[in-house]
Amino acid sequence: MQNALLLRRTPGLQPSRALSRPYSAHSNTGIGSGATGGGGAGMWGPIPDALEAAAGIVHVAKEAKQMRRTGEVRVTVDREECIACGTCYEECPEVFEEDPQDGLSRIVEAYRIGDDPAVGQVPDGLADCVRTAAEGCPVEAIQVEE
To answer: Which of 38, 5, 36 is nearest to 21 (CA)?
Structure first.
């Protein structure tokens, strides 16, 4: 057996011949197999590779979300979409500020890339702040790239 991921096989169902393993998730439902065939009573078998891989992907995605990354986060403000509500610079004043000329949001000068007030590179320590501001933007004008 591969690892601890197991699935109970329903008695009286034969596993699908399309699967490479003797017992499968499909054998519980009879999909692709003769549901009337014999079989062992209550046998256990490993989950097929595809299901095991999917479970692994979900686990890795959850771990990645929880892990803190090192480096920087790229932030972009779509100033054409911005409605100047102020949510971003209220949530994250270390990164966002109001442009006094047009009232729209912009990246503070310390984190701008070049002279563009809409694009910045932010240290990882401010990533949560930036994400909170992006999630709070009512018109989704803030993009965060990790």
So the answer is: 5
pLDDT at 85 over 70: yes
In a domain, residue 1? The reply is no
Cα 11 off chain centre by: 38
Spatial contact of 95 and 126, defined as CB atoms under 8 Å apart: yes
Structure tokens at 20: 């490479």
The CATH number of residue 91's host domain is 3.30.70.20
pTM of model > 0.90:
no
Q: What are the φ/ψ torsions at residue 26 (nearest 5 degrees)?
A: -70, -25
Q: Which residues share a beta bridge with 145?
A: 74
Mean pLDDT of 18-31: 44
Statement: residue 67 has pLDDT above 80? no
